[in-house]
Amino acid sequence: MCGIAGLVLKGRNVQADRLHPMIERLAHRGPDGQGVFTEGGFGLAHTRLSIIDLSGGRQPILADDGRLAVVANGEIYNHVELREALEREGRRFATHSDSETILHAYALDPEGFAGRLHGMFAFALYDGVRRRLVLGRDRLGIKPLFYAALPDRLVFASEMKAILPLLPNAPTIDAGAFSQFLHTHCSTGEETLFSGIRRLGPGEILEADAELNLRKRRYWTPLGVRSRALDFAEAEAEFEGMFEQVMKEHVRSDVPYGLFLSGGNDSAILLAMLSRLQAQPVRTFSIGYVDAAMKDELGDAERIAQVFGSRHTSIRLRREDLFRRIPHTVWAADDLMRDYASFPTSALSEAAAKELKVVFTGEGGDEVFGGYRRYRQPRLAWLARNLLAPGTGGFRTRSEWWRKRSQRLFGPALAAERKHFRAPYLKAWSEAPAVWSHLQHCQYTDLVTDLPDSLLVKVDRMMMGFGLEGRVPFLDHRVVEFGLGLPDALKTDGKRPKVFLRRWAERHVPKEHLYTKKRGFTVPVREWLGGELLDRLEGKLSGNAAVREWFDTRHFPALFQAQRKKGNASREIFCLMQFAIWHRLFIDQPGLKPSPDEDPLDWIS
User: Fold this and answer.
1) Which helix (H) or strand (E) segment is 381 a member of?
2) Handedness of CA 568, 331, 584, 415 (dihedral sign)
3) Degrees (nearest 5) of the Cα angle 479, 360, 487?
4) What is the pLDDT of residue 574?
5) Of 13, 93, 131, 440, whose CB count within 10 A is highest?
6) What is the Rg, in whole angstroms, of the alpha carbon atoms belonging to the chain?
7) DSSP secondary structure string, 9-29?
């Protein structure tokens, strides 16, 4: 797990010192070392978090007498098997790093090499013979990669904050992406909050030559998955061996690992599997809240930890702990993304990073096996919603700023973008095969929108903010293809979620845990956003120049009064606070880095 960055200059040579500002902005992703490679107009940079081949895996890694160079972020989980295959095909390795397999796979097949890689990764590969840069991202978008293409340069990095120093002009905000964040809690797709900075999509390769001619292609997509007429016994027989192999690949590490344990099924299943694959107790961490009326999952997590005898730590956040973590989570997220679970994830990551470099998490199980309540709506509800907002079968139709009170807050630029906020969901829904079921359409839409651009942003950025690698076995592409292709009846019976996964897991996890009603990883923001903090926040936001540029602050008194009386404006107020802090960190004073313990109001200009 690392940070990667680099630069292609048209008609000029890249000097190593031009990459140093990028390295500084990515130091948190790789505190164990750094490296630079330059040749002509091409430059690669790397910050390293040592996980595999601790002594010999420094990057950039070179091959073929320096004609190939690579920097990579993430893990190639099948590097053992792939290395053996590549050596049989005549390749010779210089290190034991999993990342070196990328170079040798490319050398043998520059077009199809990425299909041989199992894992979570983003990489930049320089081909000195063809004089081109090759950027690639894993199939599900677990690892991030951003780029900016300008007339005289191509700049890329693991996080957008590392691109900003190499742009010729101060960044500006993309109104469409900003609007998406407000309406759907994240911006999704190619465009980001920064005009001109783009995401490389999951499963995509981008090539750039010395003249900055770009070629993009997609080497994997879930659209090729076919529905399969399996009964439970057939599915069970197939999944058992496949998931066993996935887990064996995922536990490959030269450093100790742990697990974030919620009260749900997915992390409990991972605990059961990890307990089978190692002799010593698994190191686990869970989180709950102090003085919150909302019930958390800490008790369930502690009980399942006792069942498997894990070496467990429970963390309890107070109201003040959560709010003082806001500036750091905004900085770490890089992009605006309103997922309250970022705060407990950040706290867990800070605690785990004091003793570990790798932690497993259960993300992806709901998308892959049909766990969300939003997948299980009555048919009439789907039909009614689709009549009101056609194009997605009644799925993801409503803005999170749906109240008229909220919409009055939009300034002219945001008001103009309001009608476009569903565009990524409409696109995803329409490109899914017509023969797929409604449930498969829902799964696919989430897999290509909210999963890479919200859920996995939380996992990667909150954890990497403390130099911690997160591993998500349920998002191995083999598991995703299996789950998406299951018959609907093995995903939900209309009332219960994840029918297959829970039945399969009965041999590994106590049934009373598997069939406990799911509560979700909730955070008491609505309950805690009040009192003196809310009063001070209203004054700060009302006077903030960036907020006043994008919003009509004349309607703020009604918004804040609604929160005081009914507590139903926390979502909008929280978005406004995030934006004000984000604007200061990335527009007004780029380069600032808050600590994990700050008064959020001090970071609103």
Assistant:
1) helix 379-388
2) negative
3) 20
4) 97
5) 440
6) 24
7) ESSSPPPGGGGHHHHHHTGGG
Would you tell me the crossing angle of helices 265-277 and 232-250 to the nearest 10 degrees?
60
Within 8 A by CB and 6+ apart from 358, the residues are 1, 51, 253, 255, 256, 257, 258, 468, 469, 471
How far, in Å, CA of 453 to CA of 598, rounded? Answer: 26
Element (H, E) at 217: strand 214-218
> Are 442 and 397 a contacting pair, CB within 8 Å?
no
Task: List alpha helices for 171-264, DSSP H.
Answer: 175-184, 232-250
Tokens 């890089």, residue?
334
What is the percent of the chain where pLDDT is above 90? 92
CATH of domain 232-370+446-515: 3.40.50.620
- Please give the Cα distance from 169 to 197 (Å, whole number): 12
Q: In sequence order, which residues have a C-beta less than 8 Å from that of residue 198 and are 6 or more positions away?
A: 146, 147, 148, 149, 190, 191, 192
Give the integer Cα–Cα distance in Å for 73 and 61: 12
Q: 3-state SS of the chain: helix, strand, coil percent to 5?
A: 45, 15, 35
HEC letters along 98-148: CCHHHHHHHHHCCCCHHHHCCEEEEEEEEECCCCEEEEEECCCCCCCCEEE
pLDDT tens sequence across 489-502: 999 988 899 999 99
420: confidence class by pLDDT, cuts 50, 70, 90: very high
Euclidean distance between the first and final Cα of the chain, in Å?
A: 34
575 is catalytic: no
**Where are the strands (E) in 461-530, listed by range?**
469-471
Q: Give the alpha-carbon dihedral of 95, 99, 104, 107, to 10 degrees.
A: -130
Is 205 annotated in a binding site? The answer is no
Query: Hey, what are 535's tokens?
Result: 């009063």
Question: Can you name the residues that pair with 76 across neighbouring β-strands?
Answer: 119
Asked whether 537 and 570 are in contact (CB, 8 A), the reply is no
> Which member of 2, 186, 442, 575 is catalytic?
2
Give 2-218's CATH code, choosing from 3.30.70.20, 3.40.50.2300, 3.30.499.10, 3.60.20.10.
3.60.20.10
Q: Is 32 assigned a ligand-binding role in the annotation?
A: no
Q: Where in the chain is the domain with CATH 3.60.20.10?
A: 2-218
d(CA 342, CA 462): 7
Helix, strand or coil, per DSSP, at residue 559: helix
In the chain, what's the furthest Cα-to-Cα distance? 71
Q: Is the pTM of this model over 0.85?
A: yes
**What letter does residue 518 receive in the DSSP assignment?**
P
Cβ–Cβ under 8 Å, residues 587 and 171: yes
How far apart CA 184 and CA 172 sit, in angstroms, is: 21
Residues 6+ apart with CB under 8 A from 421: 179, 180, 182, 183, 184, 399
Give dist(CA 487, CA 223) in Å, integer: 16
Q: Which of 401, 433, 374 is nearest to 382 (CA)?
A: 374
Quick one: angle between helices 265-277 and 298-308, nearest 10? 20
Burial grade of 381 (CB within 10 A; 0-12, 13-18, 19 or more): exposed
Tokens of 582: 């984000």
What is the arithmetic mean of pLDDT over 94-118?
96
**Long-range contacts of 560-563, Cβ-Cβ distance < 8 Å, separation of 24 or more:** 560/534, 562/405, 563/529, 563/530, 563/534
